[in-house]
Write a structure and sequence with these properties.
The chain is α+β, with helices and mostly antiparallel strands. It has helices at residues 19-32, 37-57, 102-106, 108-116, 163-176, 189-197, 243-255, 314-327, 371-384, 399-402, 405-410, and strands at 7-13, 63-70, 74-81, 119-125, 128-136, 157-159, 201-207, 213-222, 226-234, 262-267, 278-286, 292-301, 308-312, 331-335, 348-354, 359-366, 389-395, 413-419, 427-432. A hairpin with a 3-residue loop joins strand 8 (213-222) and strand 9.
Length: 436
């Protein structure tokens, strides 16, 4: 599990006179935690706009908390507020500003904030909400460096890589595997070093007595009870040394004492020892040449799964029952649908882009009565950008997210697979397959 990060906090009244104090806090925290000047200023701009908006929406005697944390390869700033008037619709990638619409102009700051950071999420809290901004550090991709030619290895040992070995390892991944076999971050060696140094990721490599790398594997936490692995990536083919099994065993050995129930592999390779895993299902990846590449996601149970409760809209229940029966997952399915209850006016979907593979994954971070229209607008934008691989992940730990299943199906999405404990509970991966 990731260690507790370095963090600092500020409690302050929602009064514009404190705006400079908030911006100074954001800028100096960002620099102290490793952001360069340009990135620190972008984070500062985002925090300035958020605080200014909250000042307009809240009361001057209301106190909020601003907390900055060092994530190793990113800096996170969280605003915790008791305000109930926060309208986050400007955080949608489809948002724009109309100079003839007063409400739109008031949300311009939120639009600027959302474009100044890489990621964000919004969480309801007992007495308000928490808005988290994540600004990643900038790294060179080192595309000008050539990967060395590897000589065959006759024996190996499994080690935790030092920073230089780790950088070479991820460069070798990019040189030997197609882009859909690893996250885009793995094409940035320095970033991976900080990911592992932060304890958010783990890594093992197989090397011979001369230090020649034969392969490696990485992993990280996903959700509350699941770990995700990447690889194993092998550079000695054909593999007659048992590298794949040894690397997978090393990963399993490192995470054995963790409280994770399962291990998933969304970035598997042909060398993945299939006897170690079972299939969760597959998705379709549309390639540049128009062909379709079926991509299987794998799973291995690590500890006893005593089951949990999940929410499901009626349109999704049959799919879940079939999958849970096939995978022998103990789940109590609780039916849910909207019953005319009052909802916030505007929803927010957070995007995660992988432009190299023309792919995007959407996640719902705020419920709203305009969810169907919001989804329609997102699809319109994504089609215009020629992104054929469109996914939407629904966390069944939240009834309001499960209720989105109907509009997803109506819009041309189909449930493809279940990620056990991928969030608060299981996560269903929907894939856009076109309007019916």
């Amino acid at each position: 599990m990731k260690d507790q990060p370095e963090q600092v906090s500020l409690k302050i009244c929602l009064n514009p006179v404190f705006l400079r104090l908030v911006t100074s806090f954001a800028e100096e925290s960002g620099k102290a935690f490793g952001l360069n000047t340009a990135d620190a200023l972008k984070l500062t701009l985002a925090c300035e706009e958020i605080f200014a908006y909250l000042c307009r929406a809240g009361r001057t005697d209301e106190t909020i908390t601003v907390k900055a944390a060092n994530g190793g390869y990113y800096v996170q700033v969280k605003f915790s507020s008791k305000s109930r008037d926060f309208n986050p619709r400007a955080f949608n990638l489809t948002s724009s500003v109309s100079f003839e619409d007063t409400a739109s102009l008031e949300e311009m700051g939120l639009l600027i904030a959302s474009r100044s950071v890489e990621r964000f999420y919004i969480a309801e809290e007992p007495q308000g909400f928490g808005l988290v901004l994540i600004k990643e550090k900038s790294y060179p991709e080192l595309t000008d460096l050539k990967s060395p030619e590897l000589t065959p290895i006759k024996n190996f040992s499994i080690r935790t890589p030092d920073p230089d070995t780790l950088k070479l390892f991820v460069r070798l991944i990019a040189a030997h595997y197609p882009s859909h076999a690893y996250p885009h971050a793995f094409s940035i060696p320095g970033k991976v070093v900080d990911m592992v140094a932060s304890s958010e990721y783990g890594a093992k490599v197989a090397v011979d007595e001369k230090g020649t790398i034969g392969g490696g594997i990485l992993w990280r936490w996903v959700g509350l009870k699941t770990i995700e692995s990447f690889g194993p990536y092998l550079f000695q083919k054909p593999n007659g040394l048992g590298l794949s099994e040894a690397l997978t065993d090393a990963c399993l050995g490192e995470i054995a004492k963790a409280e994770a129930i399962g291990l998933i592999s969304r970035y598997s390779t042909p060398e993945l020892p299939k006897g170690y895993f079972e299939s969760l299902g597959s998705i379709d990846l549309f390639q540049q040449d128009g062909s379709i590449l079926p991509w299987t996601v794998y799973f291995r149970q690590l500890h006893e799964d005593r089951g949990c409760q999940v929410w499901a809209h009626p349109v999704l229940e049959d799919f879940l029952r079939v999958e849970y029966r096939r995978l022998f997952f103990a789940r109590e399915i609780r039916s849910t649908r909207y019953g005319g209850e009052q909802r916030p006016a505007h929803s927010v979907f957070a995007p995660q882009f992988d432009r190299t593979n023309r792919q995007i994954t959407l996640r719902a971070v705020w419920d709203g009565a305009d969810a169907a229209e919001n989804l329609f607008q997102h699809l319109k934008v994504l089609k215009a950008e020629a992104l054929p691989n469109i996914f939407f992940e629904v966390d069944l730990g939240h009834a309001w997210q499960a209720n989105l299943s109907q509009i997803l199906v109506d819009s041309g999405f189909r449930p493809r697979l279940v990620l056990p404990y991928g969030g608060e509970a299981d996560v269903v991966v929907f894939q856009y397959q076109g309007s019916q």
